């Protein structure tokens, strides 16, 4: 089984989130790669190249999506994700109240327009992964693998 993690980060927090997910996927014997989402074109995604696709993006200014992920986001509904299991995680700051972690919600809504299979509910991390967030991210990765094994 193969997984691909695409991330965007300004402060390094989301790379830490991606690393937690990657470590757990690898522990579960999933061949995993991690890439900056800036360099990935959603229209070039090939279902044969990954069983699981994870995006990890931060929420920016008043609940908007990270600039690095905008092109990917806009093209995602037209991407070929037939039978690919997807999941979304990302960091935010609870200081922003209702705008906390909305990038996760925005990307999940875009993924729902594809032929992909939602593998787990999105995970929002306040700033950096603390112990409870690490546990939530590990469960998230485990759910993705379980869903991929059932398809």
What would your notes on this structure say?
This protein has about 150 residues and is α/β, with parallel strands linked by helices. It has 4 helices and 8 strands; from the N terminus they run E-H-E-E-E-E-H-E-H-E-E-H. The strands form 2 sheets. Strands 1, 2, 3, 6, 7 and 8 form a 6-stranded parallel β-sheet that branches. A two-stranded antiparallel sheet has the order 4-5. The radius of gyration is 14 Å and the shape is globular. The mean pLDDT is about 95.
What is the number of helical segments per DSSP (H or I, 4+ residues)? Answer: 4
Sequence stretches where pLDDT stays below 50 over 5 or more residues:
none
CATH class: Alpha Beta
**Cα-atom radius of gyration:** 14 Å
Secondary-structure element order, N to C: EHEEEEHEHEEH
Largest sheet: 6 strands, parallel
Number of domains: 1
Let me know the number of strands: 8
Distance between the termini: 12 Å
Mean pLDDT: 96
Name given to the CATH architecture: 3-Layer(aba) Sandwich
The CATH homologous superfamily is termed: Flavodoxin domain
Predict the CATH topology: Rossmann fold
Which structural class is indicated by helix and strand composition? alpha/beta
Cofactor: FMN
Family: Belongs to the flavodoxin family.
Protein name: Flavodoxin-like domain-containing protein
Function: Low-potential electron donor to a number of redox enzymes.
